[in-house]
Structure to design on (228 residues):
């Protein structure tokens, strides 16, 4: 016994409704998922073109965004994106604006202009002392130059217990647990992209070359053993 055919629309409104339903289907007859629908646009048709589109993206990002990510989002060649970014950096870098565009931490984003740092600092701090202590800065430097490194080795370099300072740096997002030492099982720490951003660096290669003046790993091991 065969199934009955679908009912034939009898009114113009039913025909129109059926036509709209068919138009909403993909070629294979499957309705598209809501998450898969993307808004089509042409950057060239936007009022400000690629320049304004890049500014709009940089305005909402929480972390530096790469030129490749911008090129993918705007569907433009990477070379064109880089030219626009370089132009924006020159345009906003003259100090006549309170902000600028910089390539820091491997990506681009808006930053307040350094000329207005005193104003920003006064507003953000509002009389509160939120800068890192000398102990925190010293510990952060050891991690930056000797990462990945354990707490024991950091303590050996500084000559004091660094547990509290390490917790502070972890809380502020400047360092992170990166791995475990295979022999001792100790947690090893390294710096984060946020550290690069705050220091105005593109990579750890941009750190001043003072690492050779820190003790070698073998010396640190001896200091750790002596402290036990």
């Amino acid at each position: 016994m065969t199934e009955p055919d679908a009912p034939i629309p009898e009114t113009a409104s039913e025909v129109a409704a059926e036509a709209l339903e068919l138009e909403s289907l993909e070629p294979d007859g499957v309705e598209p998922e809501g998450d898969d629908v993307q808004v089509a646009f042409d950057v060239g048709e936007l009022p400000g073109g690629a320049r304004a589109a890049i500014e709009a993206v940089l305005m909402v990002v929480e972390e530096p965004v790469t030129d490749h990510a911008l090129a993918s989002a705007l569907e433009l060649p990477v070379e064109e994106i880089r030219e626009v970014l370089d132009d924006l950096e020159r345009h906003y870098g003259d100090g006549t604006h309170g902000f600028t565009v910089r390539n820091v931490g491997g990506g681009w984003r808006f930053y307040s202009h350094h000329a207005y740092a005193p104003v920003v600092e006064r507003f953000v701090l509002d009389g509160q002392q939120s800068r890192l202590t000398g102990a925190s800065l010293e510990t952060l430097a050891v991690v930056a130059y000797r990462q990945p490194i354990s707490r024991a080795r950091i303590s050996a370099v500084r000559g004091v217990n660094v547990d509290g300072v390490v917790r502070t740096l972890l809380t502020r997002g400047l360092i992170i647990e990166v791995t475990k030492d295979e022999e001792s099982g100790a947690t090893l720490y390294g710096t984060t992209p946020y550290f690069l951003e705050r220091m105005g660096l593109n990579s750890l290669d941009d750190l001043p070359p003072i690492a050779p003046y820190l003790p070698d790993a073998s010396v640190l091991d001896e200091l750790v053993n002596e402290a036990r």
